Amino acid sequence: MTPGRPVPPPLAKPVTLDSSEHRSGTLAAAYGATSPDSGLVPLTVARRTPTADDVEIAIEFCGLCHSDVHATRGEWRIPPYPLVPGHEIVGRVTRVGAGVQEFAPGDRVGVGCMVDSCRECESCLEGLEQYCERGNVGTYGAADPRHGDDITQGGYSTSVVVDRRFVLRIPEALDPAAAAPLLCAGITTYSPLRYFDVEEGDSVGVVGLGGLGHMAVKIAKAMGADVTVFTTSESKFEAARELGADHVVLSKDADAMEAANRSIDVIIDTVAAPHDLNPYFRTLRLDGALFQLGLPADDMPPVSPGLLIRRRLAYAGSLIGGIEETQEMLDFCAEHGVVSDIEIVGAGQLNEAYDRMVAGDVKYRFVLDTATLQEPSERSDA
User: Fold this and answer.
1) Residue 12 confidence (pLDDT) above 50
2) H-helix or E-strand spanning residue 326
3) Cα–Cα distances in Å, from 11 out to 8, 39, 69, 83, 157?
4) How far, in Å, CA of 143 to CA of 121, rounded?
5) Which of 1, 31, 154, 232 has the fewest CB atoms inside 10 Å of its own CB, making it the most exposed?
6) Rounded to whole angstroms, how far apart are CA atoms 136 and 163?
């Protein structure tokens, strides 16, 4: 199951656009939630007219992330409704502002988990916008301070307008639908592997084989690593090997875990449910590291400090990646032919896809084909 970053009574009362907004802005067809239990329903959202630094994008595909389920169902917090999710956006540029030189109409581009940051703090200046000290602006459900604190609406829609600094170039070598999940699952797994400088000859362990886990396997293999998948299910053995894993370990088999002792340099843990990490620490070599990417809703079992101390191990977290690093990841994936394994769904299948995500019934990511969205109404719901 894919961990989170970020289904939905009747539609919210429509908000009528005034005449000036209707002339200058764009209405986009969308699907989103109007309450925690509404399910995903058709909506219309207003997109701003591009300013000098903006890029307007006609969305082709948008990945479905498990965090979208948590967000729309109010499982982390009650968000501002109506809410259009989606932060794995791929599409074509339709127009650009006067100050935009790096993109032109017709370019294939992407938008990931954030659409702005303060641009001034130490993290932002270092290209680590995901760790913005004032808080980055999420692609959906976030107040956008540069645009009157309007609430951002995501990619389950036909168009979006985003500042050029947060738009990414999608290499034409990548299949656009299969590239969409790279903008969350791809960068989320690439970033810690890159931070640890994984290279040929290193040994990488991957805990969990869902949306994040399968990307971790593919990217680590492309970096030249020897990859071990840890899974609680023997039924995942064949799938792990098909993805390129060199070894598969049944983590509930004590003997198998003992055999893996001191064999791994870095572990990418993608499991979003509480689980005991201590057996995995025992598989790490001296100076090894375990990166926690899964975000369980409940407390994890305690970590034994002795295990960390005796091998100088690091237990770390990691959050998506900055814009520069995300572009680096996209270019790396294009060079090595790495994309997500996907199932394309139409708008009418979104609620079923959410239920299947919760059940773990997807290999490995759903992607919305936005051509299946209805035409926008004459009034904006959000």
Assistant:
1) no
2) helix 323-336
3) 10, 10, 18, 11, 16
4) 19
5) 232
6) 13
Cβ neighbours of residue 205 closer than 8 Å, sequence gap 6 or more: 227, 228, 229, 230, 264, 266, 267, 268, 280, 283
Record the tokens describing residue 219, joined without a space.
């990217």
Q: Which residue has the tokens 């003992």?
A: 258
Quick check: helix, strand or coil at residue 137? strand
H or E segment and range at residue 204: strand 203-207
Tokens coding 134 = 């004032």
Q: Which two tokens stand for residue 155?
A: 């990619």
The secondary structure of residue 300, as a DSSP letter, is P
| Cβ contact 185:161 at 8 Å | no
Segment 262-294, tens digit of pLDDT: 999 999 999 999 999 999 999 999 999 999 999
Cα dihedral value 96, 100, 105, 107, nearest 10? -130
C-alpha pair distances (Å), 54 with each of 29, 48, 251, 303? 20, 10, 48, 46
Is pLDDT of 333 > 90? Answer: yes
Candidates 356, 359, 382; CA nearest to 41 is 382
pTM of the predicted model, to two decimals? 0.91
Which of the 8 DSSP states describes residue 376? P
Task: Evaluate whether 66 touches 357 at the Cβ level (below 8 Å).
Answer: yes
Distance, CA of 369 to CA of 355 (rounded, Å): 18
